[in-house]
Amino acid sequence: MDFQQHLQEFEESARHRAARTEPRPLGGRLPPAVIRSVQRFQAGEDGDGTSLIAAAARAGDPIYLAAVRLFVAEEQSHAVRLANVLRYAGAAPIGGHWTDTVFVLVRRGGGLRLELLTLMLAEVVALRYYRALRDGSGDAYVADVAGRILADEERHVPFHLDRLRQGFAPTPLAGRVAAAGGWWVLMTGAVLVVALDHGSALRALGVTRRRFVTDVRGLFGPMVTAVFRSAGSSILTR
Questions:
Q1: Which of 37, 38, 111, 125 has the fewest Cβ atoms nearer than 10 Å?
Q2: Please, where are the H alpha helices in 89-139?
Q3: From start to end residue, where is composition biased (Basic and acidic residues) (predicted)?
Q4: φ/ψ bin of 25: left (φ > 0), alpha (ψ from -120 to 50), beta (otherwise)
Q5: Contact, 87 vs 24, CB < 8 A?
Q6: Is 6 helix (H, G, I), strand (E, B) or coil?
Q7: Domain 3-228: CATH class, spelled out
Q8: Contact in structure between 179 and 228 (CB atoms under 8 Å)
Q9: How far, in Å, CA of 4 to CA of 231, rounded?
């Protein structure tokens, strides 16, 4: 898929979002562990995307830059929806969380490729987390919000993978193998931190830490292959 098509998908999503009035019900009940977990994810979704937008601007592709701006706006809409979930449950957003601070620092340590490699760690974790929230909350409103966020995240993944594949295409095989290995290391660390930090919430949603880690690794393997495989070669997925 080219980035013009990605841009059109983001534009269509933005139109649908603008035409929709987000419900803001009150009086819901969620387990305290799930509330704390949603607060941390809400803080992570609530960034301004300045670093990513700047890196995309330096790449020199106005169509890709426009798509990135809409991606950031979509992520910010997730923060709004999660804030509504917290109000529904009688809680409030938090100012931030140390895991998000570390994540942002790592992302800003290099150029666009590092931004996207690190961002994709959050995206793959989000795929499994929002599925757990959708399927395990036992609340129709929360399940609807989580399901709609999950649908957005599922569109984000190919968008970022296409750009990463393009970015690594000229890299020699040895460099791609090294990058793939480093990406696996980062992902393993990230998913273990999330599983430990959100373990109580995951249990309340019917997912064990082990299951969460296994599922995220299963989602991540094909992404590594999609980015680093080239004609006539293969990159091992662990």
A1: 111
A2: 98-107, 112-136
A3: 12-23
A4: beta
A5: yes
A6: helix
A7: mainly alpha
A8: yes
A9: 25
Q: Which of 71, 68, 45, 44 has its CA nearest to residue 55?
A: 68
Query: CB of 88 within 8 A of CB of 29?
Result: no
| Burial of 26 (C-beta count, 10 Å sphere; 0-12/13-18/19+) | exposed
Burial of 69 (0-12, 13-18, 19+ CB in 10 A): middle
Please say whether the beta carbons of 206 and 133 come within 8 A: no
DSSP designation for 229: -
The pLDDT tens digits of the residues spanning 47-106 come to 778 889 999 999 999 999 999 999 999 999 999 999 999 999 999 998 765 566 565 665
Asked if 113 and 160 count as a contact pair (C-beta separation under 8 A), the reply is no
Q: Which two tokens stand for residue 180?
A: 């793939």
Q: How confident is the model at residue 233 (pLDDT cuts 50, 70, 90)?
A: very low
Amino acid at site 122? A
The domains of the chain are located at 3-228
Phi, psi of 95 (to 5 degrees): -70, -25
Q: 93-121 pLDDT, tens per residue?
A: 987 655 665 656 655 556 889 899 999 99
C-alpha 18/C-alpha 169 separation (Å) is: 37
CA distance 51 to 107: 8
